[in-house]
Q: What sequence folds into this?
C-alpha cells in the first residue's frame, strides 16, 4: 500500500505492459496446442470475441467472425438498428477530418430512435449464416429492448457498459434487476464491465455466464481524462479471476467465464490477459484495422457519441490486412497486430501448455 498524503492509502496495480510471461522448462510443438473455448453450450475455435462497436461489427463482419471460429457481437444500439441502410452514415463519419465535427455528427446520427424490428432483422441475418449470434445493449436500454433481443433468437445476450454493477441505485428510474432479469431468460448473458473482486463477485451471483473485466474500448475511450476512472488490466483480471475461484466454491461448482475487455491491442496483450486469469478476450481496435471493418479505418465506441458527455474519440488506424489475416494469419508485420491467434498458440507452445485453461497457471513477472 502507498500513502497518498496523510489521509489516503492506495494499492499498487499493474497493467499488461507491466508484466511478462515466463517460459517454463518444457516447450511443445504448436500442433499440440488447442485454443478452443467453450462457454455455455457453444464451442469456439479460439477465445476471442469481437467487441460490439459500429466501427468493427456489422452483420457481415459478425458472420465472417463466426465462420473463422470466433464470436462477433453486434451493437444493438448502433447505426445498424437505427437505420435501414447505415452505409452512407458510416462513410460520412469516415470522411470528416475535424474531430469535433465528427463528434457532433455522431451525436446527431445516434440520436435517431432504435427500431426493435431492425434488431430482429440483423440478428436473423447472422443466424441465417449458420454462426452464433450475439447482441449487446447497455444497462440503461436493456429493459426497453430485451424482448426484441430475445425474440430475435440470439445465442448470447451481452449487457455492456463502462461500469456495470449488480446494485445500481437511481431515484429517477427503476434500475435493472440483473438477478431477476437473467433468471427469467433462457439465453446466456455476458455482463460487464467491472474491475474489482467485489463487483465481479456480485455480477457472478446474478447468474451471468461471463463477466467482462475492464471498460472496453481502450484505444477509443477517454474515460480516464473525462471521469478520472481507469483500471490497470493485469491487476483487474487477476482480482476477478480470484472472484471466479471463490464463487466456484460458493456456488458448488458453477463456473463463470472471465473476459478481458479493454487494453488488448496486440497479440501479446491477449496472452498476458489469459496468463492473468482470463478465459477469453474481447477486442475492438485490432479488428478495426481490417479491410472489411465498417469504420473505414476509423474506430469509435458507444462513449464517443453520448449526447451530453462524450467519453470517447474517433481514432484513426491504418488498415493492416483482412479480418482473416488479423485473426489467424498469415502475418506480414512484426508488431503483434496480425495473426493474433497464431501468436497465442505460439505463446502456449513456448511455455509448454496445450490448453488455454492450463495457460492461466503460467508464471508471470513484473518488469
A:
Amino acid at each position: 500500500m502507498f500513502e497518498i498524503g496523510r489521509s489516503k492509502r492506495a494499492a499498487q496495480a499493474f497493467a499488461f505492459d507491466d508484466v511478462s510471461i515466463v517460459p517454463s522448462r518444457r516447450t511443445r510443438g504448436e500442433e499440440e496446442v488447442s485454443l478452443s473455448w467453450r462457454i455455455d453450450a457453444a464451442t469456439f475455435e479460439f477465445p476471442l470475441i469481437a467487441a460490439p462497436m459500429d466501427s468493427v461489427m456489422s452483420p457481415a463482419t459478425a458472420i465472417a467472425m463466426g465462420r473463422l471460429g470466433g464470436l462477433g457481437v453486434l451493437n444493438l444500439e448502433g447505426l445498424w438498428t437505427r437505420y435501414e441502410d447505415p452505409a452512407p452514415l458510416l462513410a460520412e463519419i469516415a470522411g470528416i477530418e475535424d474531430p469535433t465535427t465528427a463528434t457532433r455528427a455522431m451525436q446527431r446520427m445516434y440520436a435517431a430512435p432504435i427500431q426493435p424490428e431492425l434488431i430482429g432483422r440483423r440478428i436473423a441475418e447472422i443466424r441465417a449464416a449458420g454462426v452464433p449470434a450475439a447482441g449487446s445493449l447497455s444497462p440503461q436500454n436493456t429493459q426497453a429492448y430485451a424482448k426484441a433481443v430475445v425474440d430475435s433468437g440470439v445465442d448470447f445476450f451481452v449487457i455492456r457498459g463502462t461500469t456495470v454493477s449488480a446494485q445500481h441505485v437511481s431515484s429517477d428510474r427503476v434500475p435493472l434487476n440483473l438477478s431477476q432479469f437473467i433468471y427469467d431468460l433462457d439465453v446466456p448473458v455476458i455482463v460487464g464491465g467491472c474491475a474489482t473482486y467485489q463487483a465481479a463477485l456480485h455480477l457472478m451471483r446474478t447468474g451471468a455466464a461471463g463477466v467482462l473485466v475492464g471498460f472496453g474500448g481502450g484505444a477509443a475511450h477517454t474515460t480516464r481524462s473525462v471521469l478520472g476512472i481507469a483500471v490497470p488490466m493485469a491487476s483487474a483480471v487477476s482480482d476477478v479471476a480470484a472472484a471466479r475461484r471463490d464463487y466456484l466454491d460458493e456456488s458448488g461448482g458453477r463456473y463463470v467465464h472471465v473476459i478481458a475487455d479493454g487494453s488488448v491491442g496486440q497479440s501479446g496483450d491477449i496472452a498476458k490477459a489469459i496468463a492473468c486469469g482470463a478465459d477469453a478476450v474481447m477486442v475492438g481496435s485490432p479488428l478495426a484495422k481490417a479491410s472489411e471493418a465498417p469504420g473505414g479505418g476509423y474506430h469509435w465506441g458507444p462513449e464517443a457519441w453520448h449526447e451530453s458527455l462524450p467519453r470517447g474519440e474517433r481514432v484513426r488506424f491504418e488498415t493492416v490486412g483482412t479480418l482473416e489475416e488479423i485473426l489467424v494469419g498469415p502475418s506480414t508485420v512484426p508488431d503483434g497486430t496480425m495473426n493474433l491467434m497464431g501468436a497465442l498458440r505460439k505463446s502456449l507452445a513456448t511455455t509448454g501448455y496445450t490448453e488455454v485453461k492450463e495457460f492461466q497457471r503460467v508464471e508471470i513477472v513484473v518488469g
Notes: The two ends are 19 Å apart (CA to CA). The mean pLDDT is 93. The longest strand covers residues 189-194. Residues 233-250 form the longest helix (18 residues).
